[in-house]
Amino acid sequence: MELSVYNIEGKETSKKVTLDDKVFGIAPNDHAIYLDVKQLLANRRQGTHKSKHRGEVRYSTKKLKRQKGTGGARAGSIKSPLFVGGGRVFGPIPRDYSHKLNKKQKALARRSALSQKALSNSIRVIESFSFEEPKTKEFLKIWENQQLSGKKLLIVLPELNKNVYLSSRNLPNAKTIIASDINTYDIMNANDLLFFEDAVDVVNRLLGAEADEQAAESTTKAVENQPVSSEAQQ
């Protein structure tokens, strides 16, 4: 797949970039995307929630009333969950929400997310640029020139560009990452992807290599699992 490259003024140039079909042209696997996003969000959770059970509440241990003769239910401790200020039954305790996901599954999810954006024409490529100093106003002009204002945008850089990052940091609907850190959640959370021209080559190289590696492993396993004929056994 080929895309035109636009300049910072939003005008189409004569340059073209090629999106690797192994990365941007596969049939999207929705379940892989779901699993990867679920894992990333789960790993972000702190898991520091805590409530006190009856053994941790600090109150008097005196029996509240006599056992019999009151006409009411028995009550031995004000720490009981039945009373206001008492401990909580089965309350939350600190826990680790993080879990692992197969490396191949994560790679498939990234390629599926990019392919989904390519299918919906939500990828735009712009000539690489920089600022002499951080200027949010200048970045907004470029954003508007690309006809992407008002949309949630993911800007993909080939490498760290501090001035571009600082210029977009205060914008609530824009996020800037480098190509090597691209992930499924950020891709799916954005309406459009704005690739710097050189960033496309980085993504093609990194994710394309993952696709080639997985294809080679699948071929090797398929050969190993082929039944051996009786003539070969003799």
Structural class: alpha/beta
Strand content: 5-15%
Computed over alpha carbons, the radius of gyration is: 28 Å
CATH topology of the largest domain: Ribosomal Protein L4, Chain: A
Shape: elongated
Q: What is the CATH superfamily classification of the largest domain?
A: Ribosomal protein L4/L1
Uncertain runs are none
User: CATH class of the largest domain, anyone?
Assistant: Alpha Beta
Mean pLDDT: 89
- CATH architectural name of the largest domain: 3-Layer(aba) Sandwich
Count every helix, treating DSSP H or I runs of 4 or more residues as helices: 8
Tally of DSSP β-strands: 6
The biggest beta sheet is recorded as: 6 strands, mixed
The number of domains is 2
How far is it from the N-terminal to the C-terminal residue, by CA?
A: 50 Å
Following the backbone from N to C, one meets helices and strands in this order, namely: EEHHHEHEHEHEHH
Helix content: 25-40%
- Strand order of the biggest β-sheet: 2-1-3-6-4-5
